[in-house]
Design goal:
Oligomer: single chain
Order of helices and strands: HHHHHHHHEEEHHHHHH
Shape: elongated
Low-confidence stretches: 131-139, 312-316, 326-338
Strand order of the largest sheet: 1-2-3
Structural class: mainly alpha
Radius of gyration: 24 Å
CATH superfamily of the largest domain: Intergrase catalytic core
CATH topology of the largest domain: hpI Integrase, Chain A
Largest sheet: 3 strands, antiparallel
Mean pLDDT: 83
Distance between the termini: 44 Å
CATH class of the largest domain: Mainly Alpha
Strand content: under 5%
Helix content: 40-55%
Number of strands: 3
Length: 338
């Protein structure tokens, strides 16, 4: 996407983005471009003509931001960084404080019946289940292995709790069938980890690799796209998964603003809940189970794991209670003055 800037801020935004492109990731950089375009258009509409933005200017702009608390936080954080940059040129714009982000994300929890329906539909999936898009008439032919890959892909997500892009990036050399493990190299936090697989899943994956003709090339992708040297893009799997959900009649009518509804990432949440539930029933000690699950999922802190397990306390209320008892002693209570 091409971002255009029309206000007097254009040269300053260009210089700021040149600096940021070096120090931030591509996704963050793209978001910053979008946010600054939003602010630039607002400045042009309001007819502002100097960089000494006041507190009133900033708060009026914040009212135009539509999204969750985390979205507002990121917008303000980006603007604050830009204003710090402007101060280096002698301007004195008001520096806003980043608003507090409340933990308002609610994941959709698949029931056992829904999981079974998803796997069953994926096992019988065909490209004819969805017509070709008139905008992309050749897209179906480009990834014609999807009916074979999708069932395995979903089993990996649900059976190992991987993120979508972690599974997409798997190479043949990352699979150890003897020890039933996966090596995850491309991760959200850039931290290499080894993930155990259930022997039954490992056996299915072995038969899948043979059927797909991956051969002995260690650098062949487990989920090849146009060829074995390129993977299927994660968004392609996401699109086909949405069609599976539609076929299964799984949706979240009347969902709250912060609720994503059922999506492919919810399979990771389903893995986390069921793993914790299984460990609890088998008598695992909290001191062992919770840190192990956190590391397994590739989380940097137990707070991330806690968010996964608290996403739907009604379905897993019996399992959430012991986690909360355990975590209360780890996080110091913070008291804010009114």
């Amino acid at each position: 996407m091409i971002y255009e800037y029309n206000s007097f801020l254009k040269p300053y935004i260009s210089l700021f983005l040149e600096q940021q492109e070096i120090v931030v990731g591509l996704s963050t950089y793209t978001h910053m471009q979008s946010i600054l375009q939003h602010f630039d258009h607002y400045v042009a509409e309001q007819g502002y003509d100097n960089c000494n933005f006041t507190e009133t200017h900033v708060f009026q702009w914040m009212k135009t931001i539509d999204g969750r608390d985390s979205t507002v936080h990121f917008y303000v954080s980006c603007l604050r960084s830009f204003f710090v940059f402007l101060r280096g040129y002698g301007f004195r714009p008001f520096l806003p404080c980043c608003p507090k982000v409340s933990d308002d994300y609610i994941a959709y929890e698949f029931t056992d019946e829904e999981i079974n329906a998803i796997i069953s539909i994926a096992d019988n999936y065909t490209l004819c289940m969805h017509p070709l898009s008139p905008k992309h008439p050749h897209s179906r032919r480009k990834y014609d292995r999807i009916p074979f890959e999708l069932p395995m892909f979903l089993r990996i997500l649900f059976g190992c709790g991987l993120r979508r892009e972690e599974a997409v990036s798997l190479l043949l050399r990352d699979v150890d069938f003897r020890n039933n493990t996966l090596v995850i190299r491309k991760t959200k936090n850039d931290e290499y980890r080894v993930v155990p697989m259930d022997p039954s899943l490992s056996a299915i994956l072995s038969r899948y690799c043979i059927a797909m003709g991956l051969g002995t090339d260690p650098n062949a992708y487990i989920f090849p796209g146009t060829d074995f040297s390129n993977p299927v893009p994660g968004r392609i799997f996401m699109n086909h998964f949405n069609r599976v959900l539609a076929e299964a009649g799984i949706n979240l009518a009347g969902r709250k603003k912060q609720e994503r509804g059922p999506c492919i990432h919810c399979l990771r949440h389903a893995f986390a809940h069921r793993s914790f539930k299984k460990g609890t029933k088998e008598g695992w000690a909290m001191n062992d189970q919770i840190p192990w699950l956190s590391v397994y999922l590739g989380h940097r802190s137990l707070r991330e794991t806690e968010k996964y397990l608290k996403s739907n306390s009604e379905m897993f209320s019996e399992e959430i209670s012991p986690f909360e008892d355990y975590s209360m002693g780890l996080y110091p209570e913070v008291i804010f003055d009114e």
